[in-house]
Amino acid sequence: MALITRRAFLGLTGATLAAGAVAAGAFAGWTLSANGARPLLLSARNDAAGKHYAVGYRLDGSQVFATRVSERCHDVVAHPSLPLALFVGRRPSTQSYLLDSRDGRLLQTLHTPAQRHFYGHAVFHKDGEWLYTTENDTSGPGRGVLGVYRLQGRQLQRTGELSSHGLGPHQLLWLPDGETLVVANGGIRTEAESRVEMNLDNMDSSLVLLKRDGSLLSREQLPERMNSVRHLAVASDGTIVSAQQYMGDPADPVPLLAIKRPGQAFQHFALGEAQRQAMNQYSASVAIHNELRLLALTAPRGNRVFIWDLDSAALRLDAPLADCAGVGAVAEGFVVSTGVGRCRLYDCRRNTITAQPLQLPAGLWDNHLRLA
Q1: Could you report the per-residue pLDDT of 189-240, keeping only the tens digit for each?
Q2: CA 35 to CA 56: how far, in whole Å?
Q3: pTM confidence score
Q4: CA distances for 113 relative to 16, 95, 160, 213, angstroms
């Protein structure tokens, strides 16, 4: 039986954003984050009519907020100490949305300046005063910049920008020192208000480390020029993992997962051939569980979720999940969302990983989720 597609799901469902949530307490026995609190799942989500929302849910299915926004969002970044979350506009959006994460109240619609658009990701500095976003300079399409914003009175003010030292920067994260940025430059040029790739025959993807002042520390590339470095996860020991999307021939045998361990070069992660083929040349979200030393990846075009041992690269899980999307670590293992079905908890505390559906609304979830 063919797996249902997101388009088909949208045609079948008439559910609202609140549909599918059940009584709180169904999973009260395990919904704890690493700091002992009940985690708040933050994500972008659509409704059946295609309207865009920024949402917050507890893992027992209880809705904290569902705030309608003008443009589709991609990733979410929570403030390190205040009840704030920025829902970042999906490429080539020029808007992002700063919300009060307690009730979903919209505090600010953040606009890019002229000839800039968001690439979907951002990070707050550990002191909470500064925000960095990946952006496109459309006056020189694909030239990557990091927008620099300062939080003042719960409003973000742009103060400048840094070079991403590459083309098409997508995700950025901090190394454990909290002062060094790692940037995934996708290597693709796009024009304003467009998602059309202009330079597939001359891509220039890279993994970059830079200081907060923009000083370049390193720039590394994978051997395959059309392997676009997109999404990132960073372990507490400084290990960096990146998930790729391959823009070349679908038959090319190219791994879509790469790793940079402390003191080592950026290189392919050891993938089994069956897993490589199952990804269908496209990976989405990636997450690391520091306590369990596990790595999780979603491959929505292949409808597969993968979990590996981070240190040995041993495969722990290869499971079907239609249109799987965001992934994030919780105490028990990983939470995974999906565009067409039930979100899942993958309990990784024993030798055999088990999955159970979460009582969250089914389907319509976007690419990423964050647990705050």
Answers
A1: 776 666 677 667 779 999 999 999 999 999 999 999 999 999 999 999 999 9
A2: 18
A3: 0.90
A4: 34, 10, 10, 21
